[in-house]
Amino acid sequence: MSTPLRVTVWGENVHEKTHPLVAGIYPHGMHEAIADGLRTDPAVTVRTATLDHPEHGLTEAVLAETDVLTWWGHAAHGAVKERIVDRVQARVLEGMGLIILHSGHFSKIFRRLLGTTCSLTWREAGEKERLWVCNPAHPIAQGIDRYFEIPHEEMYGEPFGIPTPEEIVFLSWFQGGEVFRSGCTWKRGNGKIFYFRPGHESYPTYHQPEVKRVLLNAVHWARPEGGRWVDACPNVPWDKAAEKITPQGETLHRPGEAGFR
Questions:
Q1: DSSP 54
Q2: Is residue 125 pLDDT above 60, yes or no?
Q3: pTM above 0.85, yes or no
């Protein structure tokens, strides 16, 4: 029997406690709605964590037991502690998958890993969004037709201040005419990253079957592939080189010196 895929679903859980509209759509929190969609797969085990938990629910122990982390944030990006961001970044470099959702484009962890502003244009008018599949063969797009539509969503538009994606899985068109790179992938260290745009809190997006399908596909795609991430710059003495060499000239570093620290 294969080892279950361990997923941690992280959410701010702020709007759900302060806005009756959001609470009505997601009475148990957006994080639980996302988690419920993943729990339909018996090969996936899911835990949830929120901003108000100790250490935001992302302790070293939790992250050590997480293969893929999903992240939804919007109103409280600044409240996320830097040491938790450091911790998540380290795990992504080691191989943990990261799925960033909707307004998570402005989260500390996403902007740090991508190294850009991740800015965009936006409008909240409850307009239709059509997500086109750019690569039908991509694992994240499996089970999705040529496109699917979300009846009411917040618009995100280009330009989107991100590094060129390694892959664009979905491209959105909005009723107002804007387009947006809505499903993008990157790799940082040993970890895979997927950004998926839909998911404004005032619409029932995470109850939609196509969105659930994409998220389930995404966590499977982002699972660790093994391998060791080396976070050091060790000195290799000349007499330990794979081939025989004779040192030439004066050297600045003593044999065995760590350097670069």
A1: G
A2: yes
A3: yes
